[in-house]
Amino acid sequence: MLSTAICQRVLSRALSRGGTFAEIFAEDDRNFSMLLRSRKIENAGFSRPRGAGIRVYDGLRSIYVYTCDMTEGGLLRAAEQAAAAVTDTRGAGKDVVLRASAVQNIHPVRESVLSVPAQRRADILRTADAAARAVSPSISQVTAGLISREQHVLIANSEGLYAQDTRVYTRLTCSAVASNGSENQTGTENPGALMGFELFSERVDPEQAGKAAATSAVTMLTAPYCAAGEMPVVIAGGFGGVIFHEACGHSLEATSVQPGMSEFSGKLGQTIAAPCVTAIDDGTMQNEWGSENIDDEGTPTTRLVLIERGVLKNYMVDRLNGLKMGMAPTGNGRRESYAYAPTSRMRNTYIAPGEDDEEEMLRTMGDGLYAAKMGGGSVNPATGEFNFAVQEGYLVRDGKIASPVRGASLIGRGGEILMRIDRVGKEMTMGQGMCGSLSGSVPTNVGQPTIRVSRLTVGGK
Length: 461
What we know:
Layout: H1 4-14, E1 21-37, E2 40-47, E3 50-58, E4 61-67, H2 72-84, E5 99-100, H3 118-133, E6 139-157, E7 161-179, E8 184-189, E9 192-193, H4 199-202, H5 206-221, E10 229-235, H6 242-249, H7 254-257, E11 279-282, E12 303-308, E13 311-312, H8 319-325, E14 333-334, E15 343-344, E16 348-351, H9 358-363, E17 368-380, E18 385-397, E19 400-405, E20 409-413, H10 414-420, E21 421-424, E22 429-437, E23 440-448, E24 451-459
Parallel strand pairs: 5-7, 10-17, 16-23
Antiparallel strand pairs: 1-2, 1-3, 1-6, 3-4, 6-7, 7-8, 7-9, 10-24, 11-12, 11-16, 12-13, 14-15, 17-18, 18-19, 18-20, 20-24, 21-24, 22-23
């Protein structure tokens, strides 16, 4: 993409007026998307965004300039702009020598989506569409999409790093709307992985995805509204992990921890969760949606135990926040694209499997709520306060699922929910999503086994 010689000259220019560290992040992407709506392919598009970001540390301050001009001249101009903002001129004019680093690819891709004939791509969407419509006559609208991103990155810095990596993301999106003439309910399934088109022969069944989306919509269409109150809640695996991701995960990122804007700041080694809770952020899981070979700062990916049997063991740390905290980076430096400076972000974050029986969780909970699918929500990392919608929920009476309910939301605080988890199931599953933060939107997996929270505020209509 860029030779070592060019990168050396650009980095030297970035440090020409001082600064303690300089970095280039360059990318060349090949993106494809196809959308089917009302049984017709509405559009199919290809794009190739390219560009580079140049970062300079001025003490503990970061200066970031980005450009879509990938010529040497364009990069040197961007480096000059970054250098002009440096205030600490000590060490100006540092020479940079780069050493190419071999990056081990632990996420093999066998078939590029772009190499697959258009008809085969369209057939995936038509299969999901047909399966969704077959669930019920009340399905009034189905939208299915195929998304592929091939991201080729190069990271070079003034400490001698010169590394390249390729990430290939493929995802199916399916949304089904059920209608009774007066109101609508929507169900969604959006599975994906760090894979090519082999995703659909190895991991994702388009027919099953379409059916699941439609079934959820139909179920919620006839469901009564959920009553509000404090009650035990059982949260299913997979995308139920969004609770930990949002309510607790963001509060364990150095982005929040370093400035003291996290409820978990300064609590390493302390008990912050129930003894049955172990939580992990793992970028090494083969071909998973949130995995990488190296992060966007060139740090090798890691498996990071965040909480072990209730005790806080680690934070997720990027390079700059690590410098401020006196901690080594953990491979969590991520960004949406060259237009963003990196910061600490989650990868595949999940509550590890436990030893409890899922049937026993329900049987002994009395009256409460079973959250089968979680929707969107909001969280304040400083306080841990959260509010999440339940996309598909069921009322539990005397330990038995009584009926579906809609309009439910889960309200609480991250630190409280961690301490109130009293059951953790044996089988962990994951769901795919896009997480937004200071460095843009990045692919993340959320996961957990089925868990039970002994007491949680449930909001209704």
